[in-house]
Amino acid sequence: RKWVYLFTEGKAEMRELLGGKGANLAEMTNIGLPVPQGFTVTTEACTQYYEDGKKINDEIRGQIDEHIVKLEAITGKKFGDHENPLLVSVRSGARASMPGMMDTILNLGLNEDVVHVIAEKSGNPRWAWDCYRRFIQMYSDVVMEVGKKYFEELIDKMKEEKGVTQDVDLTAEDLEKLAGQFKEEYKSKIGKDFPTDPKEQLYGAIQAVFRSWDNPRANVYRRDNDIPYSWGTAVNVQSMAFGNMGDDCGTGVAFTRDPATGAKGLFGEFLTNAQGEDVVAGVRTPMHIDEMANKFPEAFKEFNEVCSTLEKHYRDMQDMEFTVEHGKLYMLQTRNGKRTAQAALKIACDLVDEGMRTEEEAVAMIDPRNLDTLLHPQFDAKALKAATPLGKGLGASPGAACGKAVFTADDAVAWAGRGEKVVLVRLETSPEDISGMKSAQGILTVRGGMTSHAAVVARGMGTCCVSGCGDIVMDEANKKFTLGGKTFHEGDEISIDGTTGNIYEGLIPTVDATIAGEFGRIMAWADKYRRLRVRTNADTPTDAKKARELGAEGIGLCRTEHMFFEADRIAAFREMICSDTVEGREAALEKILPYQQGDFEQLYEALEGTPVTIRFLDPPLHEFVPTTEEEIQKLADAQGKSVQAIKDIITGLHEFNPMMGHRGLRLAVTYPEIAKMQTKAVIRAAINVQKKHPDWKVVPEIMIPLTSEVKELKFVKKIVVETADAEIKAAGADLHYEVGTMIEIPRACLTADEIAKEADFFCFGTNDLTQMTFGFSRDDAGKFLNAYYDTKIFENDPFAKLDQNGVGKLMEMAIKLGRPVNPKLHIGICGEHGGDPSSVEFCHKIGLDYVSCSPFRVPVARLAAAQAAI
Ligand code: PEP
Ligand code: MG
């Protein structure tokens, strides 16, 4: 097998094998752009490395060695050579770009001898020693995992001794001395000399890239972004272009459109006399890309041409890294740029208007998971006007956030775990901070530009971020900072605006986002191309209205138990539970009936004649019983029973396995009067609303939960139908209604042909179906699932992302069995999976009629449904 490819041997379509970076480096080479040449070790080699017990086998080694020779021939340079030494960068590159993995090692191939050679040949010893000390630093950090702080301390010490503040002010001699100190540091930590053989260095770096595929940060990122572990990462070995050889050199990062807003035009940052990591690390504050026109007019002109070539070629916004060496431009990377949800919509629409993309392609370009950032809260405009910003950074990722200031990623996780809303405040962030960033409402950094780690990662997560607020005086050690004359300690409240970059003291109230413009255009296209309908899970008129605004075409699940929890109602409901007689229960239910009917009427109103599925009471009764002595006493009084008698009833309701206990339609079998009451409430509400709105067609869908056997469904259905028909007759109304069932127990899937005869519709309750299929509890599985992720038994939470192999197979079986016996049967899903893009795609594939999800995920589902159809 071929494990290694020269850039000249690859192309963009080989992304799976070469990773995104490798495939695009090959593609840029093919279209004649100035790319320093190199080779890519494939993603398959990474997978093989793990299969071989974390070893690079001889075959792969042989091919790498061969390609070193080839690269030496192409560049006319040689590893470790005393005339013309080859120096390379080593970079990871998975199929999808992945923060959290090893990023870059520069200047690999240097040793004491080679430094002298390049110092002499270039006549620039400062540069040579700068390269060397950077290499030792990066190699020690990413390959050998000696923390970078030791090296930074040495640099700081050196700067102090020399009385300078900037790295660039250190002389060749200083840097040579530093390189020596770095090597000593390395030896003291590792116990061995720093490697001098370029090949040994290269293999160390390649292994480090492979290893980083499996580090905890990468695993977290993969899980969040649906990236399979099996993909592996490629390694790119590229000959160096130097941006740090003097003032006619530089390096930068640029986007062809603004990644925050989507506005067309070059957007980026660059630094003269610097190497790549200086720009992204936020160590020095970079210049605006436009200044490049003054510094390097020739290279800037060429760069602009390259940008337009690349955009036309990829037909998408590009994110590029480049270096200018003595005035000459080199392209180091291009990729479809990460962008905010707003920018994604604008860019997709613009590309259609510019004739570069079709509507379908535009719809396919939007990551549905990003959409909900658009739906996230913004500051209340009035409150915002009244507030004076204490300071301002860069609006790096939009949205509004407020919370208590915390200063470390671990604190963010811990505080959020206690239910606190926090804003993570850092000098700068690094990949180790990822779980802290995820736990925070927002992120505020002192250093770093729009392309800094914090900015890029926050944008990807859809978390509000203000970066690069240099006015902050930070005291990380003592967990405090000062801004605008005000000192903030841990726990002090702060608000940040990720759009404007403004920072405020205290909590500013937020309001929901409104959606319009490009969002509407994309959604309209999505609606045009999707086949799946999208309903919502809503129990209140407010939720239902919100969902309608967001495009819901009906209610797929109204959990009626949520309507029992209000104070008046719960009292009546408890009375019902504690009654010994049917009459007693009926009397209690009679009190609840008007509430339920009123609720249902409001729901029908909110849904404007679109379908509304009402699911009958589902949870085990113990969820409703009082827990405090005071409430128990109250219930005892109301029931004319002793406290002990109530306690006995409560004890009697205890179940060892409540989720597999007395719940769902089993409640209707034991207490038919509950189903009767709920039927009355539904039918009466429907009749009333239909009367009020003759032009609507109100067709109530009554949904029976948890069926496992057709006879139990038949039993409950009979109660429902008799009650409903009597109501309709008494009212002299003409109302059509449906009775269907949830499919959430494996046995229901296995016997769906029998059940379909008694059901007008099926709705997959994949929360329970997942629980019952795996045999683990939807409420408690979290306790051990982390161990399952760590051991790669699971890559995803099956309660969030549908298990297509198991649960999905049961669904397919239910559909295959059900449809032939009842051609009118309509089928949906209302488990949490109904709003998860990959699950929606599956639902499309297996032929469901609709998905139902929480209101804010409705747009996500609409888009995912369209993407599945395109
Ligand atoms: C389900 O089980 O998937 C479902 C939607 O019902 P609930 O979550 O209310 O059990
Ligand atoms: Mg359920």
TrEMBL record:
Entry annotated with the keyword Transferase: yes
UniProt keyword Transferase, yes or no: yes
One GO molecular-function entry: pyruvate, phosphate dikinase activity
Taxonomic classification: Bacteria, Bacillati, Bacillota, Clostridia, Lachnospirales
Annotated PEP-utilising enzyme mobile domain residues: 420-501
SUPFAM superfamilies noted in UniProt: Glutathione synthetase ATP-binding domain-like, Phosphoenolpyruvate/pyruvate domain, Phosphohistidine domain
Stated family: Belongs to the PEP-utilizing enzyme family.
InterPro entries associated with the record: ATP_grasp_subdomain_1, PEP-util_enz_mobile_dom, PEP_util_AS, PEP_util_C, Phosphohistidine_dom_sf, PPDK_AMP/ATP-bd, Pyruvate_phosphate_dikinase, Pyrv/PenolPyrv_kinase-like_dom
Origin superkingdom: Bacteria
Signal peptide: none
Enzyme class name: transferase
Enzyme Commission code(s) on record: 2.7.9.1
Residue ranges annotated for the PEP-utilising enzyme C-terminal domain, each copy included: 518-868
Record domain Pyruvate phosphate dikinase AMP/ATP-binding: where: 59-288, 300-350
Catalytic activity line of the entry: pyruvate + phosphate + ATP = phosphoenolpyruvate + AMP + diphosphate + H(+)
Name of the protein in question: Pyruvate, phosphate dikinase
Entry keyword set: ATP-binding, Kinase, Magnesium, Metal-binding, Nucleotide-binding, Pyruvate, Transferase
Cofactor requirements of the protein: Mg(2+)
